[in-house]
Design goal:
Length: 150
């Protein structure tokens, strides 16, 4: 990936080491996430089916029973996705009041672990977040769960 707007006359090593005479280097924590954009909806299936029907060979048309079978398979898949979502919801609700350990990858490659009691659960951008020590964490950051010691 090319880097744009990088001046060749600047000494970036000195800037990173704080030798430029300017403000010292600031450290930032970052959380890297992976987007999940792989799901198909019913409208996607219907669009594909319409495209297939409009572009089929009229001398050898596709049998209608194939479309019914595909529709049944898609309905089953949709029901399985809904069941998976309900299972995930049940799991995240079971974490309320338990001690959880979460891990964050930081820019330098270090892993920061935080342990605390889950005080609340929220749904943000279609992803469940647990609140530990006043800060929200995603489900993928949870590394261990234990009963609360109260």
């Amino acid at each position: 990936m090319p880097i744009s707007n990088v001046s060749s006359d600047r000494n970036y090593t000195d800037i990173l080491n704080g030798a430029s005479g300017k403000d010292p280097v600031k450290n930032f924590d970052a959380i890297f996430t992976k987007e999940d954009n792989t799901s198909l909806g019913m409208s996607d299936f219907l669009s594909l089916m319409i495209a297939q029907l409009t572009n089929q060979d009229f001398t050898n048309p596709v049998n209608d029973t194939e479309y019914v079978a595909q529709m049944a398979q898609f309905s089953t898949l949709s029901a399985m996705q809904e069941l998976s979502q309900l299972s995930k919801q049940s799991y995240v609700l079971s974490l309320l009041g338990k001690n959880c350990t979460v891990s964050e990858n930081q820019i330098g490659g270090d892993v920061k672990t935080i342990t605390g009691k889950v005080t609340s659960i929220s749904l943000v951008d279609n992803d469940y977040k647990v609140t530990i020590n006043g800060r929200q964490y995603g489900m993928s950051e949870i590394t261990s769960v234990s009963e609360s010691a109260e």
